[in-house]
Specification:
The chain is mainly beta. It is built from no helices and seven strands. The protein is about 0% helix and about 45% strand. It is globular, with a radius of gyration of 15 Å.
């Protein structure tokens, strides 16, 4: 996951490739959300059981039902993005 600040906003997102939308096959898509603050850790930990949970953590744990997504902190917004 990419993170950067832009005009006072905290942006979290990722670039994905669209594999099947007619003639736009392979076009990159920027999927993002705006957060309220900078990440409080180096990873986003997502658990789906027994109850859905999302939190920032400093390191990956050993819980097999938790997915850890590294956060890449950028100095500035990518030039290709138009927010």
């Amino acid at each position: 996951m990419l993170y950067f600040e832009d005009n006072g906003k905290h942006i979290y997102g990722t670039l994905i490739s669209n594999h099947g939308y007619y003639e736009m096959q392979g076009i990159p898509l920027w999927v993002y959300t705006e957060g309220e603050a900078a990440p409080a850790g180096n990873f986003l930990a997502y658990g789906s059981r027994p109850k859905e949970s999302v939190e920032f953590v400093d390191s990956m744990g050993s819980e097999p039902r938790v997915a850890y997504l590294p956060i890449i902190k950028l100095a500035e917004k990518l030039e290709i993005l138009d927010l």
